[in-house]
Each structure stands twice: as C-alpha cells, then as structure tokens.
From TrEMBL:
Residues 45-193 form the DNA methylase N-4/N-6 domain. GO terms for molecular function: DNA binding; N-methyltransferase activity. The keyword Transferase applies. Pfam families: N6_N4_Mtase. Transmembrane segments: none annotated. This is DNA methylase N-4/N-6 domain-containing protein. Coiled coil: none annotated. One of its GO terms (biological process) is methylation.
Length: 215
C-alpha cells in the first residue's frame, strides 16, 4: 500500500501533502488514516475551474491540500518567522524578525511577515502568468513556497512524486531545501531541468540579508 510505503520511509517528524479534489481526497483518506494524522487542510482558491459536472453541486474552483503527519505524539510548529521580501515582483524569503526596509525615500522593498492562512488566493498559473513554463497544471510558486516553509527547515529533503514542470524542486532549491522529483512523462523532463538551471543562476537568498536585517 502506497501510504504504508511512505510511512516506512518518511522522517519521524516528516509530513505528506495530499493534493486533490473532493470527494476523491476523502475517499483516499481511508488508506492514509491507518498510518497518518490529518493536521490541517489548506485550500487553493482558483479564479477558474472546469465546467460544472452536473446541476447537483457547485462548480468547483478550488483544490484541497491535506497535511498529514507521521508522528501522532508531536507536531513541529509551523515556521512562522518568515519575512517576505519582494522586489520587482520577485519573492525572496529569509528567516528572521519582522522588518520593513525602505530605500532612499522611495519604497524599494516591500517586507511583510507571513503567518500562513488556510486559504491560498493566488491566481491559477496560466499562459498569462510570468512564471508559466508550459505545463497545463502548473502550481503557483507562492503556494509551494508556503507549503515548504510551513513544514521544513533548510537542508531538509522533499520528495515530489508528480513533478510536472518541477515547481516543487525549483522552489525547494530557492529555499535551500534538497529535493527528489519523479515525472512519468519524458516531455516534461527538459522543462524541469531548465527550471532548475535557471534557479541555480539566481542570486542566493543570503545576498538579500543586509547587516541591518541580520541582528
Ligand atoms: C498535477 S501535475 C503536477 C504539476 C506540478 N506540481 C507543477 O507545478 O508543475 C501531475 C504530474 O504528474 C505526472 N504523473 C502522473 N502519474 C505519474 C506517475 N505514476 N509517476 C510519476 N509522475 C506521474 C503527470 O505526468 C503530471 O505531469
């Protein structure tokens, strides 16, 4: 059983994110419930979705993400001491105290403290999005960033068995996490490799921590 195989290999304090739609996720839960504890649900609100299946249920414009923990006795705290630094639309994340940085009378940097909420309102990634690389079900980097930050520390390992365009590995690398990605379709592999290569050439997040911020 997949849930048992993952249970055997996962770090004691590790977690699993199950992404999907209802009622499938709830139906799958019976396999996971034997080994895992459901800690919380996060909802990805989308501005679009497929046509209504029938007239007995509302048209679905969201996805559910369930966070399952392996250990039943202890959950680690969500990583809440996170500053977001946005410069020209690029998100950089550093750990530290809440802080605002203003540059030369103009607001060059925008810094906010993110305590995660249960709903992600970011736009669905489509061909009009700057981060779009061509995969039809590409996840928003910001959503993946939140999920990674909530559950892992720098240096931790993340396994993404349905890599698609490689968003998880791309963001994992940006945040100093290690990752292993698996993708069944050959055509997406070059896309994943390219994203990782581009990520490698980006400025390290430590370059964004000025002396002012490090104390
Ligand atoms: C929903 S997409 C993932 C999108 C990804 N999170 C992203 O942001 O690009 C699911 C991917 O899983 C792949 N997939 C489906 N079944 C698989 C399997 N058994 N093993 C590995 N990959 C699989 C599909 O080819 C598809 O690219």
């Amino acid at each position: 059983m997949l849930s048992y195989e993952i249970y055997k290999r996962l770090d004691y304090y590790g977690c699993v994110y199950l992404c999907g739609t209802q009622p499938q996720l709830a139906m799958d839960w019976r396999y996971w419930a034997r080994f895992f504890t459901l800690l919380y649900e996060k909802v990805q609100a989308k501005n679009t979705g497929p046509p209504a299946i029938n007239r007995k249920q509302p048209r679905r414009v969201h996805e559910n993400i369930w966070c399952l923990y392996r250990s039943k006795d202890k959950f680690s705290d969500l990583k809440i001491t996170v500053d977001r630094i946005t410069k020209k639309g690029t998100t950089k994340v550093v750990k530290g105290k809440p802080m605002r940085i203003w540059g030369e009378g103009k607001r060059k940097w925008r810094v906010g403290v993110g305590y995660p909420t249960s709903v992600f309102y970011g736009k669905k990634v489509d061909k009009n999005s700057p981060e779009y690389v061509g995969h039809p079900t590409q996840k928003p980097e910001k959503l993946i960033e939140e999920l990674i930050l909530m559950a892992t520390d720098e240096g931790d390992w993340i396994f993404d068995p349905f890599a698609g365009s490689g968003t998880v590995s791309t963001v994992a690398r940006r945040l100093g996490r290690n990752s292993i990605a698996v993708e069944i379709e050959d055509k997406w592999i070059p896309m994943i490799e390219k994203r990782i290569q581009v990520e490698k050439t980006r400025t390290s997040i430590t370059d964004f921590i000025s002396e002012d911020m490090s104390d």
